[in-house]
Amino acid sequence: MTGRDGFSAEELFTQTTGWAYNDFIILPGFIDFVPDDVSLESRLTRNITIKVPMVSSPMDTVTEADMAIGLALLGGIGIIHYNNTPEKQAAEVRKVKRYENGFIMNPKVLSPENIIDDIDTIKTQYGFSGIPITEDGKLGSKLVGIVTNRDIDFEGNRGRKLADFMTTNLVTAPQGVTLSEANRILRESKKGKLPIVDKDGSLVALMSRNDLLTNRDYPLSSKDARKQLMVGAAISTQDEAKERLEHLVEANVDVVIVDSAQGNSIYQLEMIKYIKNKYPQLDVIGGNVVTAEQCETLIKAGVDGLRIGMGPGSICTTQTTISVGRAQATAVYRTARLASEYGIPVVADGGIATIGHIAKALALGASTVMMGSMFAGTHEAPGEYFYDNGVRLKKYRGMASAEAMEAGGSKRYFAEDARIIVAQGVSGAVVDKGSLFDYIPYLIQGLKHSFQDMGARDVKVLQERIYSGELRFEIRSGSAQLEGHVHDMYSYKEPTYM
């Protein structure tokens, strides 16, 4: 055979055209292993490795403690947003660090004055109905009862108060109880829920028999040296970030992202140097950047990782509004190639809408991918579900949308004190994707199949093949892109996840 099919990444991504993920296809490799042989372990930063290369975006409709806990249990990591006070952001980090497998640290709670219809609403939104009742309906208040399905199933008047139905003869466990001891109490009591209370009888956590049965083991979980779940947080480049950083370090955050829409700035350089001088043990991811020159500047400033992307997100309008940025596939390849020379991993941020896009980002040199819209519709994302024309949705907004910037997101765009705010994103909604605990395993398995078809057993092998030229690519015409998706059907049903 005299020639090879396709083109190397270098041949493809050093042209005058910027390419997006849908513009190219990866040619198949040789298969001598099964999907379950694939390892997706990869580096988030110079010093942090995770089992699943998935990171949630620091957006206020994507990542708070529930998202970060779920992702860490499943092998990824969540980055807590900073559209809040320093104390609130640090509190979200603490929830993740204090999480113990099997305990619900932030359960839904109601008061005796709530009505049965409030239980029905929680059941519709979250799928469970065993609700602890405290004096004022808040966690940390004195526990006075619990309401389960069997207490209210046959009551026709859903407007009656929970005080009339709650069970007050409770089996509880003390704060600090071990998982095995709590499990024993649950088993012997034959109850579905076990409230955890402090010495004053105030509710501090909840344990569920169903959670123990379905989520008892997470072999891929991302944990630090203390065996606590890992979590990251975003900060701005402004002076307020220094106080915020102090709170985050006290909460034992594992990594911080210096969050700027355009990361090649004196403000980011000064913040990176400040962090590395004051907290040398703390890993720092810089960005966002899209060129090799930008990467080199941040690497020389001391970053442990780079965040790549300017304008490819589904809710981002930066490239249209500001006319600055870069096509994401080209940005990932060009920056990852430079960063690999320094041993610095890159996070491909934005433009991910399918499993195939995750595979392509990794095949261009990214070590992990950061996703917003892919996670925004899950149960673990912040916000409540609502219905529009019978479709169950959750709110999702860009941090450069007018709505988010009014709430504090303008810090990311150097616009906090601007008299006129120019939005670079939109607000909208995404379809319910269910729980992370069903969704992430699906993404993982699909990604393993992609690696098998590419002929790579792990991320390290895949990326060696990128730079050797062994991994081959082709540009797809518009017709090829249509051909590669569902076509010529009168009707069809899309799978639950695409």
What would a concise description of this structure say?
The protein has about 500 residues and is an alpha/beta fold.
Plain-language structure description:
The chain has 498 residues and is α/β, with parallel strands linked by helices. The protein folds into 2 domains: 9-100 and 220-483, Aldolase class I (TIM Barrel); 104-214, CBS-domain (Roll). 33% of the residues lie in helices and 17% in strands. It has 18 helices and 21 strands. The protein has helices spanning 9-12, 65-73, 86-98, 116-126, 149-152, 179-189, 209-214, 240-250, 266-278, 292-301, 318-321, 328-341, 355-363, 373-376, 402-406, 436-454, 459-468, 478-483; strands spanning 24-26, 42-43, 49-50, 54-56, 77-80, 103-104, 131-134, 143-147, 173-174, 193-197, 203-208, 232-235, 255-258, 283-289, 305-308, 346-349, 368-371, 385-388, 391-397, 427-431, 473-475. An 8-stranded parallel beta barrel has the order 4-5-12-13-14-15-16-17, surrounded by 7 helices. It has a 4-stranded mixed sheet with strand order 6-11-10-9. Helix 3 runs parallel beside helix 8 (240-250), helix 10 packs across helix 12 (328-341) and helix 13 (355-363) packs across helix 16. It is globular. The model has no long low-confidence stretch (mean pLDDT 88).
Helical percent range?
25-40%
Biggest sheet: strands side by side, in what order? Answer: 4-5-12-13-14-15-16-17
> Any idea what the shape is?
globular
Radius of gyration: 24 Å
In whole angstroms, the N-to-C terminal distance is: 37 Å
Assigned CATH class of the largest domain: Alpha Beta
- CATH level-4 homologous superfamily of the largest domain: Aldolase class I
Q: Would you tell me the overall average pLDDT?
A: 88
Total beta strand runs? 21
User: Structural class, from secondary structure content?
Assistant: alpha/beta
* Biggest beta-sheet profile: 8 strands, parallel, barrel
Number of domains: 2
* Named CATH architecture of the largest domain: Alpha-Beta Barrel
Helical element count? 18
Residue ranges: pLDDT <50 for 5 or more in a row? none
By CATH, the topology of the largest domain is: TIM Barrel
Which band does the percent of strand residues land in?
15-25%
